[in-house]
Task: structure prediction
Amino acid sequence: MDPHSHARPEEAAATHLSLDIHVDMAKQQINGTATYELKRQGGDSVVFDTYGLTIEGVSLGDGSPAPFTMGAPGILGQALQVALPPGADKVTIKYATGPNAKALQWLRPEQTGDKKHPFLFTQGEAILTRSWIPIQDSPGIRITYDAHVTVPPELMAVMSATNPQERSSDGSYRFRMDKAIPSYLIALAVGDLGFKATGKRTGVYAERGMVDTAAWELADMEKMVEVAEKLYGPYRWGRYDVIILPPSFPFGGMENPCLTFATPTIIAGDRSLTSLIAHELAHSWSGNLVTNATWNDFWLNEGFTVYFEHRITEALYGKDYNDMTSVLGYQDLLQTIAEIDSGKHPEDSALRLDLAGRDPDDGMTDIAYEKGYALLRLIESKVGRPRFDAFLRNYFDHFAFRSITTDTFTTYIRKELLGPERVDLDLAAWIDKPGLPADAIVPSSEKFAEVDAQLSRWSKGAPAKGTPAKDLDTQGWNTFQWIHFLRHLPQGLSGREMDELDNTFHFSKSGNAEIQAAWLEQCARNGYTKAFGTLEGFLTTVGRRKFLVPLYQALLTSDKGREAAMEIYAKARPNYHSVSVRTIDEMLGWKESKPTHIF
Ligand code: BES
Ligand code: ZN
Result:
């Protein structure tokens, strides 16, 4: 049972969706029909999830109208229940999206890179697809789909499916996804897009002005697919493309099948942030092929993917690279556990979650990623890599195109690996107890030890007491080393000390969003107001929640910072996607005079 869907698949489950929609960029509305093929096993109705949709009518396969009712609205939206006569196995729902469809972000031309055309993208995970398609919106239910989408003829549409590589003359596009996928992976983007191949199966979509830069940055995509296949078996989705979205995209990446959606903040100019693509690609196995059955099992998607991501980047970029990203992830994990521990839901630091009655988005933290990764790394260290790789490969094959619960996984791994190898491991504690078990492996990095050494040499602007910043030995440092440096600056730095750092290392002007964000966090924390203009610029253009949360949080540590946060947010909020808005509204205690994101 999925606590976040109204659907009752045991009575009637959708198996195929035919979508026929028009995207009205001017009205910021999608309307059309969703036609479902159904598998029925008793019962006299089928139930779909909706959120803020106007349902204009429902008909059966023979065109006759079907009576329907709408349930009471709540955090899950509204149930749409359609009465079915015996034998009816097809329904068509005519609908239109509402003004606050949470999955959709409509951008005006000035919010895009090229500034000439509007842009639309969708974000389905976790339970947002129901705000643009009436659907059985549970990751436990899988469907194939085809779609006919019409858009203004000057724009191009792409989906998580087979995609065009050129604009059509009339704004009409057809898509097919022949593999059964969960609803959160249905995705659409519309804009003035271009495409450039990076290999025979891989390529990049982006706004026209960005295509060449993006293709250069992501040149390793084809190799990533090859490495991934060598590890855990054939890539089963045909093409693997990436679309670089405008900066308001609320995530780093989203693993929509065939077409990863990604933030432009990974375009650093030096290919240093492409591990994010390795992560989204890895989801083509962990997540898209073998899917969490409910959002309580979210760690099955993300923990396995972080492990797989590390294996891809290790093969391509070596052990040092991996040590660094492992340490950064471990630092995030410890911080997340501390925050959860002192918060309203201390139980959220268990791998298996209990999110019933809550918006699942609130429980989706670094725990799933980094604690999940820590568990898999521990098991790998106990059985050895070759044995663990063989297990994982079989796991992906065994559960391919299925959605599984944590219990299904634990039963399987006990039988296939832990039992036969006589592994000494308290799996139950790892899965269900909050916090980090004592046997977790603590990662370390030689490259970071170099950084620590320089940090302790720094005189903090008082040369008599040590080495000035300009004389620190930072030559050849990579992006992760700079991030580590910035994360571990001493606390309570003065304006003069911050001046010294910025004048020497030019963090404020860094073209690398990760470095800039880590620096701006220090600026916010230390009340370094000189950088607040840059901070405002960053917060009003970038909508990636992973950057926004620590930056606003750092501002909130002082009264002056809080004032700045409120002022900046008032300007930035209209540029953010609903998932970022929800998070930051709550952090800042923001009250909108006119209600938004309700219907
Ligand atoms: N599937 C997630 C994004 C997501 C998570 C969307 C939860 C909605 C709810 C995606 O694969 C992801 O993990 N993205 C990360 C990047 C990754 C390198 C850790 C992100 O967006 O930062
Ligand atoms: Zn992920």
